[in-house]
Amino acid sequence: MTENAVPHELIGDSWPRVSPGADPVLYGHAALTPLGSFEVRSLQTFTLCYTAGRFGIDDSGGIKVVFRFSVDWGTFQTTEPDKPNYVSARSSRGVGLELDFGKQAHPRPWYQALSVRVGGGFLREGDRIEITFGDRSGGSPGLALQTFVESALEFRVLADVCATGHFIPIANAPSISVVPGPAHAWKALLPTLRRPGETFALGIKAEDRWGNPTDQAHTRLHLRASLPVHGLPEVIDYGPGERSRRIGELRPGEPGTLRIEVRDGQGRVLAESNPLVVRDEPDGRFWADMHGQSGESIGINTAREYFTFARDLAFLDAASHQANDFQVNNAFWRHLNELTAEFCDEHRFVTFPGYEWSGNTGVGGDRNVYFREEGQRIHRSSHALLPERDDIDTDANDAGVLFEKLKGRDVVVYAHVGGRWADVHYAHDPQIETAMEIHSAWGTFEWLLLDALEDGHRVGVVCNSDGHKGRPGASYPGTSGFHAYGGLTCFMAPELTRDAIFECLRRRHHYGTTGNRLHLDVRARFADEAMLYPRDPKVESVEPTRVDEAIMGDIVEVDAGEVALSVEVVSTTPIERVEIRNGPETLEVHRPYAVNELGRRIRIIWSGAERRGRQAATRWEGTLSFSDARIESFAKINAWNPERLFEQRGEREIAWASTTSGNFGGCDVRLTGDRKGRVEVDTNHGRLGLDLAEVGREPHRAELGGLDRAVSVSRLPDRSPHREMRIDTRVVLHEGRDDPIWVCVTTEDGYQAWSSPIYLI
Predict the structure, then answer these.
(1) Strands 653-660 and 664-672: what pairing?
(2) Residues whose CB is less than 8 angstroms from the CB of residue 268 and which lie 6 or more positions away in sequence, other chains included
(3) By percentage, how much of the chain surpasses pLDDT 70?
(4) pTM of the predicted model, to two decimals?
């Protein structure tokens, strides 16, 4: 194991309880060449030389080289020497070797496995097996490395020396370092709301083509603010070697909406920040990614690197770590608690100890557990990958049992959808489970909130990444396993402390996004008497307070038949629509542009999923074609994998392939002759065709089965300036039931945001 690798004693994995000998050295050793640092997605060749130990390897025995689930390099293949990712093997003794690769060919977390089996002979001590990854001898260009940065990508070697089928780790695990590529895009990140006189920080970074903060940017940057900012330099020299820059102790000069442009020496805009609303409000806004994993469980890199990325490279205000509990051994649980205590720096960066209760859906499904303080007992769903048995009686094998064990503790829980989706019909505790996570790198799951509302639960909305690639708060999906950019949650709290964030969670004062940092404010106003409950009166005896307005997450008892609702959105990019919803019903759709503003830009969207659960992802293959009208240009929407097919063919056709899992992808096509002819959307799931003259502001939609699987076509302005919206409307209430009023915002570049509902009872 190399210096930067995750310590093996902290990893939740397990191996056969029996072995041929007492010392792993007896099973051989491995050497990898070349060693060093290699750029993400570069084409490389590596040679792994395994030398047999004292036992040799018997006929039909062999070795495995195993890799983590997250690794998204090119899929190994052993049959086409002239194609990418070709892998070969030979033995020094000349015996036959059989190669086989599978992405789920070994127990978690080392799912990916290349098996090399000895056939028709045997190996003695000192004999070698030489494996070439990215073998170029037959014309292959090499092995395409993974899309994300990793300090120590291990080639972990296991040996079945006695042909028993039991593969035992050998003593050493060689590794390489995967490093960022050249700068591709710049990012500038601000807080979302600060009060006059409060200090704040600007975060700047350059990312490579795959979203990794890179140290290869070296330039002079010019900063231009839309409002006066005390302490903001006009020019900074960035790099070399910097992966980010935090400019702190800034102070707004006046109320308003602040945006900061980052320009190069030629005046070109490299990045524009998200908006910072400067206003005298009771609550600030604090951004968090509360759900992700590191290499001690199913992800990569160390937990220390995880928190460092969240604070210094994603510029988050708050974070937690959520390892699958059946992989959290006691050593790692102690280490994780030490890290959250160390990294928690109130008013700068707040952390919470926690874990993912990972029960099967049949016993309640995934839940995220967050403690306010360190030193709490972990109640796992099982010990599925843990050889430790001394604390197995503390497990909670059922979500209902989990809630019982957590009663009276300083804890909150989210319901989560990953591999195991949370069944909130099966189990829910309204005092503990405060929120539904409806977006992550796995996709978008509005249905989880609707499940909760159907049962009358009063919960908030959160979004997180559940990232496994070491990038909390900026979680790009890469090329496999995930289908969306990771989400973020914005906490509305008076200050950035553990106490304030926990109170915010218990009152559901937060909203979630698919990764952008827009400002969202939703308020209900009451002409007649209304009573605000700080906790759910169905489950806690609390005294209400008389109010004349409520914010997202509030539970308010009202006598009136309708209420006034106001919605404010301030976005980095143009707003496409704002939907006002009452539970599952969409009451109103507001678009910031009028029909007479529509132009030559046609929007085509594909969306939805196959089903709930592990096989939710919908694979799309399709073409867009236009008769008469010609394509002048097009822009992709939510096309996170630059290697997937998405190209213009000639003047009238675009071909694409993508994946959705409840979220959406698509493109905007600017046409010439846009009122003549037809648009045809032809996909592997169905088609939609209509005359271009019929395409207007409201989408034409074709339902294509699955779970809300559909394609749609609509028309947009040629260029929309609408980055801010204020909506004032009235909502009619129902007698005898809750009216959960919530809002969904969609921006033109494909991001979404959802408010926690206001519960009018």
Answers:
(1) unpaired
(2) none
(3) 99
(4) 0.97
* Number of Cβ atoms within 10 Å of the Cβ of 237: 11
Q: Helices in 349-428 by DSSP H: which ranges?
A: 399-406
Q: How many CA atoms lie within 13 A of 395 on its CB side?
A: 21
The C-alpha torsion from 305 through 311 and 312 to 317, rounded to 10°, is 170
Mean pLDDT of all residues belonging to the chain:
96
* pLDDT at res. 2: 58
Alpha-carbon span 758 to 460, nearest angstrom = 9
Name the band, by pLDDT with cuts 50, 70 and 90, for residue 461.
very high
Q: Are 325 and 381 in contact (CB under 8 A)?
A: yes
Cβ atoms within 10 Å of 251's Cβ, excluding its own: 16
Which residues lie across from 102 on neighbouring strands? 113
**What's the average model confidence in pLDDT over 428-443?**
97
Is pLDDT above 80 for 757? yes
pLDDT in tens, 139-163: 999 999 999 999 999 999 999 999 9
DSSP 669-700: EEEESTTSSEEEEEETTEEEEEEGGG--SSPE
The SS3 call for residue 188 is strand
pLDDT tens digits along 217-257: 999 999 999 999 999 999 999 988 999 999 999 999 999 99
Distance CA 599, CA 578 (A): 20
User: pLDDT of 345-359, one tens digit each?
Assistant: 999 999 999 999 999
Q: Which domains does the chain have, with CATH numbers?
A: 8-179 (2.60.40.1510), 185-281 (2.60.40.1930), 285-515 (3.20.20.140), 518-592+729-736+750-761 (no CATH), 597-716 (2.60.40)
DSSP per-residue string spanning 501-570 = HHHHHHTT-EEEESS---EEEEEEEEEEEEEEESS-TTTS----EEEEEEETT-EEEE-SSEEEEEEEEE
Strand order in the sheet with 269-272: 235-238, 219-225, 260-263, 269-272
Task: For residue 51, give the nearest of 118, 127, 150 by alpha carbon.
Answer: 127
In angstroms, how far is the first alpha carbon of the chain from the final one? 59
DSSP lists the bridge partners of residue 573 as none
Q: How far is CA 173 from CA 7, 147, 155, 176, 737, in A?
A: 11, 22, 6, 10, 60
**Residue of 170, 213, 217 whose CA lies nearest to 54:** 170
CA atoms within 13 Å, Cβ hemisphere of 525? 9
Query: Half-sphere exposure of 696 toward its Cβ, with a 13 Å CA cutoff?
Result: 5
The owner of tokens 């059989």 is 98
Q: How far apart are CA 507 and CA 248, in angstroms?
A: 30
360-to-391, 417, 442, 464 alpha-carbon distances in Å: 20, 11, 17, 21
HSE of 416, CA atoms in CB hemisphere, 13 A: 30
Nearest to 199, CA basis, from 260, 274, 278, 259:
278
DSSP letters for 718-744: SS----EEEEEEEEE--TTS-EEEEEE
Q: Using alpha carbons only, how large is the chain's radius of gyration in Å?
A: 27
- Contact present, 604 and 666 (Cβ < 8 Å): yes
DSSP letter (8 states) at residue 421: B
pLDDT in tens, 20-57: 988 888 999 999 999 999 999 999 999 999 999 999 99
- Could you give the C-alpha distances from 215 to 178, 501, 590, in angstroms and in order? 13, 33, 42
